[in-house]
């Protein structure tokens, strides 16, 4: 295992210094952040304290102005209250007015700082004045007089021009009337001094607006503020910062918040306090406060530097401590890191020798890493061995997969099915050779085309999704213009990591299977000989006709060919089959559109006519007689006349179920045979017909009950071996137990059972109970012969039923003989031969009963798989008196012997017959002379599990 060169390249910066560098960056960032936060916090606190100081200054200055104004008004009130002032003022004597206040003026000027006193009469004339101040023309004296005289209230005013003066005007009362007023004025020097003392700052007095006769120097003119400085403390230090502030901000903003600026290495803070506005002159006065905050700023900066110093010192200490902590562990980590390339190169022994095996008492993460590295080296060493082994296995698997791929590729190309792969858009991405061959196209012509365009001629498919498996059938026209039915199975295929779903379509050509299914459907509904409908379909059609909501009337015509057995015997079964086909063709050609025509079996036909009354049904029957009579059926020199007995039953008159209607038609058909005059008979509503039908229904019910309640009785009649009179062979006969315990002859219920179809159930009942008895008798060497009806030859489940019962009972099939009559075997020869052979395949033996009625049956004797031939009793009874019977019996015995079959003579009722039978070589005899039928239980003395 080799490590890439990139992984083995030396590192320029070790992990220790990376940690130191990154942690240093982090700590320096934090120090910077905390320093900035400290500085910002100190600055914010300082600004908040200065804002509070500014607000306090404004309050103190405004309070000083208010106190000064109140003090001035009080002084004006005292002056106006002088006793010697009212009368001279009222008299308008200037000299007396001045004399009245000359004594007070020096005190007011020196002690109260009054700059000027004016005594004014009610007409606004100045009658006396002391001191220097504003020009009397600059003062609104008349306006003040009116206000004071009218309101009799003192008046205060602040006027700023060349200087800022406070004025107080108080009315002079004489006998309760205002005779004039006293006006006192004073400058703001005291207020300015108080403002400096309170704020501890330099103070300037600013007046904005136009000023007449201004004597202020140009340096104190602040054009940006449209004002001039009337007073200024420490002019050398304060004037230039004020000029900078005037160019920087407005006075209004100075009132809202102080302005910080730097001048001559000092940090200054400038704020403004507004005085009263002179409404008459539009001049506004402001106190400007200039504070030196250099020391506070230095303190903030000093604290910030101290925070930065402490932070840097802590960073250096933390990094040194981290370096001391990391040196040892990082050295161990470097050692492990240096061993990892060796681990990658597979040098596992170097790993084991370099890493100590001893462990500390208190392991840390590096100890865990070392132990993990050792364990990893061991695991990798094992894994490398396994990888090598798996590599060999993988190489072998790749070879196997290559073989499987070649096999699958060959399978795709040799499989006789369509195999088509489609992408997520339905375009063909793969097609096997069979698909290319059937379509007459090469692979290049198919790839990229839509599936529906190739296989469905552009018709939209019912399969509209690739996400679920789907099945469908489609018709494909190949280049040879043949139509093929293709059964498609579509399965989703997950391709790629994008979740797109493609589809694999496998198509099987089921054209032949479809044809076979259609053929089977046809065979299920049709008679294979005549191609007419069979009994099953006819009964189904009859049920549909009876179930129609309209409940219309109709008729069922049942035909039975007369003397058909003679045709088979005289001319052979192939001629009989040809006659049946001829009759079927005639009926279908002439009456196929009138209703449903079916062959019920043997020589029986049926016709279903809907929406038909009695007269129409009779007309159809007469027409059928004419049609059959017109058939000129000749075989060689022998000509056969075709006639039939036709029974007519109407619905719903004669029945509302298929069974009742068929029974009624059967009764009518037998009536036609018995009449001999007419070939048809319409079942009337006469009492006899009803009684006969009721009698048949009665016996059908009794047979059903006997089957359900096991009310049948098995009888046995011995069949004796004539050579030594040994009896090991018995024929099973059937009786029905009546309510009183008496036994009813089968002649009463077997014909009804054959007509109603119950005979098959009876045959199965006899078989089941005979096998139960045989399981107990076979050890005695007893053999039982059971008769099968002609209808059981057409029972498709007979073979399986017999096999199941043999297994269930445990009976030996070799001790069971199944007998069928010659008539049943000859009527449907192929079916009879198949059934008999199937029975023999199960191990049972077979017998042909009532043999000899027709000489033509000799032709089929060698072809029927039977073991015994039972000669019909009519020949045996007349042996003593009829030479013809003796010739026939001898011939049957000789022919049977020639075919290797044993013979049984029936109806042996006289002792004199036995020598003749022995002389003819007949093996067995059966008859009343040899033994009458007795109950099976009584015959063998057993009762367990027997009926």
If you had to describe this structure to a student in words, what would you say it looks like?
- The protein is of the alpha+beta class.
- It contains 32 helices and 33 strands.
- The chain has an eight-stranded mixed beta barrel with strand order 24-25-27-28-29-30-31-32, surrounded by four helices. Strands 7-8-6-11-10-9 form a six-stranded antiparallel sheet, with helices on both faces. Strands 2-1-5-4-3 form a five-stranded antiparallel sheet, with helices on both faces.
- Strand 9 (259-263) and strand 10 form a beta hairpin.
- Helix 10 (294-344) crosses helix 12, helix 18 (564-571) crosses helix 19 (573-591) and helix 21 packs across helix 22.
- The two termini are 89 Å apart.
- Mean pLDDT is 81; it is low at 1-9.
List the helices and strands and how they pair.
Blueprint: H1 5-8, H2 15-80, H3 86-91, H4 94-102, H5 105-111, E1 116-121, E2 126-131, H6 141-151, E3 155-160, E4 164-174, E5 177-187, H7 189-199, E6 202-208, E7 221-222, E8 227-232, H8 235-248, H9 251-256, E9 259-263, E10 266-278, E11 283-292, H10 294-344, H11 348-354, H12 365-414, E12 418-422, E13 428-431, H13 433-439, H14 443-446, H15 451-455, E14 470-477, E15 483-495, E16 500-509, H16 511-525, H17 535-547, E17 554-561, H18 564-571, H19 573-591, E18 595-601, E19 604-610, H20 614-629, E20 633-635, E21 638-640, E22 644-651, H21 658-675, E23 680-682, H22 687-709, E24 712-721, E25 726-737, E26 743-744, H23 746-756, H24 759-777, E27 783-787, H25 798-809, E28 816-821, H26 822-827, H27 829-841, E29 845-851, H28 858-861, E30 868-871, H29 873-877, H30 883-898, E31 902-905, H31 913-919, E32 924-925, E33 934-935, H32 936-940
Parallel strand pairs: 22-23, 25-27, 27-28, 28-29, 29-30, 30-31, 31-32
Antiparallel strand pairs: 1-2, 1-5, 3-4, 4-5, 6-8, 6-11, 7-8, 9-10, 10-11, 12-13, 12-16, 14-15, 15-16, 17-19, 17-22, 18-19, 20-21, 24-25, 24-32, 24-33, 25-26
Helix pairs in contact: 2-7, 2-10, 10-11, 10-12, 18-19, 21-22, 22-23, 24-25
């Amino acid at each position: 295992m080799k490590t890439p060169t990139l992984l083995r390249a030396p590192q320029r910066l070790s992990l220790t210094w990376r940690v130191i560098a990154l942690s240093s960056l982090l700590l320096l960032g934090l120090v910077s952040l905390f320093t900035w936060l400290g500085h910002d916090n100190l600055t914010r606190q300082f600004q908040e304290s200065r804002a509070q100081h500014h607000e306090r200054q404004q309050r103190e200055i405004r309070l000083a102005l208010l106190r000064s104004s109140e003090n001035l008004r009080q002084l004006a009130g005292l002056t106006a209250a002088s006793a010697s002032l009212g009368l001279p003022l009222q008299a308008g004597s200037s000299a007396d007015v001045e004399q009245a206040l000359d004594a007070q003026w020096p005190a007011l000027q020196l002690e109260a700082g009054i700059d000027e006193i004016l005594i004014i009469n009610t007409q606004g004339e100045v009658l006396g004045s002391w001191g220097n101040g504003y020009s009397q023309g600059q003062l609104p004296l008349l306006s003040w007089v009116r206000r004071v005289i009218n309101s009799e209230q003192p008046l205060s005013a602040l006027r700023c021009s060349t200087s800022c003066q406070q004025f107080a005007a108080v009315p002079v009362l004489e006998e309760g009337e205002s005779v004039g007023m006293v006006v006192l004025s004073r400058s703001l020097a005291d207020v300015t001094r108080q403002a400096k003392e309170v704020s501890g700052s330099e103070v300037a007095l600013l007046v904005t607006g136009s000023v007449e006769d201004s004597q202020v120097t140009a340096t104190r003119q602040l054009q940006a503020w449209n004002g001039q400085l009337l007073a200024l403390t420490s002019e050398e230090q304060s004037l230039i910062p004020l000029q900078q502030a005037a160019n920087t901000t407005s006075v209004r903003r100075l009132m809202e918040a102080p302005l910080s600026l730097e001048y001559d290495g000092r940090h200054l803070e400038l704020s403004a306090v507004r005085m009263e506005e002179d409404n008459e002159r539009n001049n506004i006065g402001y106190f400007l406060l200039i504070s030196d905050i250099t020391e506070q700023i230095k303190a903030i900066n000093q604290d910030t530097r101290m925070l930065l110093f402490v932070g840097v010192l802590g960073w250096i200490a933390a990094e040194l401590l981290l370096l001391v902590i990391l040196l040892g562990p990082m050295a161990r980590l470097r050692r492990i890191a240096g061993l990892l390339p060796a681990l990658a190169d597979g040098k596992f022994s170097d790993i084991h020798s370099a890493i100590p095996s001893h462990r500390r008492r208190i392991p840390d993460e590096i100890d865990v890493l070392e132990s993990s590295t050792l364990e990893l080296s061991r695991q990798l060493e094992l894994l490398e061995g396994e990888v090598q082994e798996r590599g060999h296995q993988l190489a072998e698997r790749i070879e196997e997969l290559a073989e499987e791929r070649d096999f699958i590729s060959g399978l795709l190309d040799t499989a006789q099915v369509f195999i088509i792969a489609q992408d997520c858009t339905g375009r063909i991405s793969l097609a096997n050779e069979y698909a290319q061959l059937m379509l007459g196209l090469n692979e290049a012509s198919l790839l990229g085309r839509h599936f529906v365009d190739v296989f469905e001629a552009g018709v939209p498919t019912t399969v509209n999704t690739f996400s679920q498996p789907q099945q469908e059938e489609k018709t494909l026209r190949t280049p040879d213009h043949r139509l093929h039915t293709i059964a498609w199975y579509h399965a989703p295929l997950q391709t790629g990591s994008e979740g797109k779903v493609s589809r694999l379509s496998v198509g099987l050509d089921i054209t032949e299977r479809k044809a076979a299914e259609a053929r089977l459907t046809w065979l299920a509904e049709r008679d294979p000989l005549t191609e007419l409908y069979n009994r099953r379909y006819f009964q189904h059609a009859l049920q549909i006709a009876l179930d129609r909501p309209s409940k219309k009337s109709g008729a069922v015509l049942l035909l039975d060919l007369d003397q058909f057995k003679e045709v088979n015997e005289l001319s052979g079964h192939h001629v009989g089959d040809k006659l049946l086909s001829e009759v079927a063709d005639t009926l279908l050609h002439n009456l196929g559109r009138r209703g449903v025509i079916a062959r019920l079996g043997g020589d029986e036909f049926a016709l279903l006519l809907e929406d038909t009354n009695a007269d129409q049904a009779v007309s159809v029957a007469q027409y059928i007689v004419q049609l059959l009579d017109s058939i000129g059926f000749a075989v060689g020199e022998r000509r056969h006349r075709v006639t039939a007995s036709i029974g007519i039953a109407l619905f719903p008159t004669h029945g509302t179920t298929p069974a009742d209607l068929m029974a009624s038609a059967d009764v009518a058909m037998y009536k036609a045979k018995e009449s001999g005059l007419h070939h048809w008979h319409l079942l009337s509503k006469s009492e006899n017909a009803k009684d006969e039908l009721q009698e048949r229904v009665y016996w059908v019910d009794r047979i059903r009950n006997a089957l359900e309640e096991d009310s049948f009785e098995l009888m046995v009649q011995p069949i004796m071996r004539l050579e030594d009179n040994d009896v090991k062979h018995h024929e099973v006969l059937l009786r029905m137990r009546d309510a009183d315990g008496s036994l009813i002859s089968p002649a009463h219920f077997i014909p009804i059972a054959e007509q109603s179809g119950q005979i098959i159930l009876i045959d199965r009942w006899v078989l089941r109970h005979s096998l139960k008895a045989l399981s107990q008798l076979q050890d005695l060497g007893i053999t039982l012969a059971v008769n099968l009806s002609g209808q059981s030859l057409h029972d498709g489940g007979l073979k399986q039923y017999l096999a199941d019962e043999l297994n269930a009972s445990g009976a030996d099939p070799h001790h069971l003989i199944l007998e069928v009559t010659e008539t049943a075997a000859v009527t449907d020869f192929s079916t009879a031969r198949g059934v008999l052979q199937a029975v023999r395949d199960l191990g049972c033996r077979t017998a042909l009963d009532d043999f000899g009625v027709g000489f033509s049956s000799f032709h089929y004797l060698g072809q029927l798989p039977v073991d015994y031939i039972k000669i019909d009793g009519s020949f045996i009874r007349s042996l003593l008196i009829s030479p013809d019977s003796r010739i026939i019996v001898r011939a049957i015995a000789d022919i049977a012997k020639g075919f290797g079959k044993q013979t049984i003579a029936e109806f042996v009722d006289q002792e004199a017959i036995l020598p003749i039978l022995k002389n003819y070589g007949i093996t067995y005899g059966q008859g009343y002379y040899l033994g009458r039928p007795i109950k099976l239980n009584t015959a063998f003395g057993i009762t367990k599990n027997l009926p």
